[in-house]
Predict the 3D structure of the following.
Amino acid sequence: MRLGGRLMRQHVELVLAQQQRLAMTHTMQQAVAILQMGTIELWNFTETALLENPLLERAQDDLRAQFEQSLATTKREWRERQRLRGLGQREDAASLMKDERVTSLSGALREQVGFLAIHERTARILRGLIDCLDERGYLELTTAELASAFHVSELEIDSARSILQGFEPRGVGARDLNECLTLQLLDRAPSDVRSLAIEIVNEHLVALAEPGYARHLARQLRTTSERVEEAVALIRATDPRPGLRYTQNETEYIVPDVSVIQVGAHYVTVVNDWSVPSLRISQLYESCLKRGSREDQAYLQRQWVEAKTLIRSIDARQRTLQRVCDLMVEYQEDFFHQGPSGLRPLTMKAVADALHLHVSTVSRTVAGKYVQTPQGTVELRRFFVNGLPSAQGEDISSTQLQGMIRRMIEQERGAHPLSDREIAERLFAMGNRVSRRTVAKYREEMGFKASSRRKR
């Protein structure tokens, strides 16, 4: 081959090179999936395994059968009440054709990862970010925290987050409400109204709760009230919690995974092993491993490996859940005395660092789990709350801050209600640095109207 007057020689050679790759085996995938399952979901999963794998059998048949019968009776009674309540009502075609299978947010996003032609390392980071999403679809952990947890660079986290934010439903992967709404607005066709809506979301979102906001914003943004109303209509068409689209609307049966009981002056955790299927290897079939044809032995050997893997995965789930809950109860002991006002700031990364676990492991461990406490049955995720700095040097939890705001509003004079800025100033005088926007956010979450609408 001649190139630029020179004779180029072409040849083919075989090069041997070493390369490290992390691939999730079937065993690892099953362990991760079991760790994330709730009690009832795990029960159904093991029931299927018992039917398909002859080497598996229950270790406590009487107790399992009693629990299964109790759960089936509860479901049957509820369905009967629903049937009697609906007698005489016509079922339309849509309800008859409704698909009862509900896709989880995690499952929908993981399916979209599979459609991408990206490097396996990037796909692995994406799946890790998906596991860290909360039920709203938000990814509140900072880039630095995620990079440290996944042992990758911050640039790789930002790149993966950008890919995640392009998935459906639009708005997932956002850090906060402002970014969530902005992502959905950016998905619309470019226009002056869209640009105005994005500016309102990022700079004046709280002002939309005030009466006469259109006129006020029009003066600030140097536009007309009509344009402001058009922009606000775009904002109202967005979904502030896109992840909740995948939340089941049906009645959910909750079986606590952990119980917290008081022993003397302290509280201890007890993982409810009775509600998790206890499995063992069938001695009858295990004795057949060395008998029969080669095909029979090969089949039984594969089933034996799968049975052992399942038993180990369930045991690892229980031990990890015990460790996480032990640390949580030790740190959040005030909650069991005072209720939600006693919650202290606690992040999943702090727990992961203390237990030498990956933050995604902690996230999977608490997902869909419930704790039975003296204060009632509480979702395990509720014990992890963000903190804000205070003058005393110790962070104050968002739950404690909401309690302070609630008491201020409930004790205010009806003729002179406190504005968000006045509440922020009072909190600052108490040693808590909180912005007016944060006060407005917590006030809205608790269902309190703006000061102009609380005036009596």
In short: The first helix runs from residue 26 to 36.
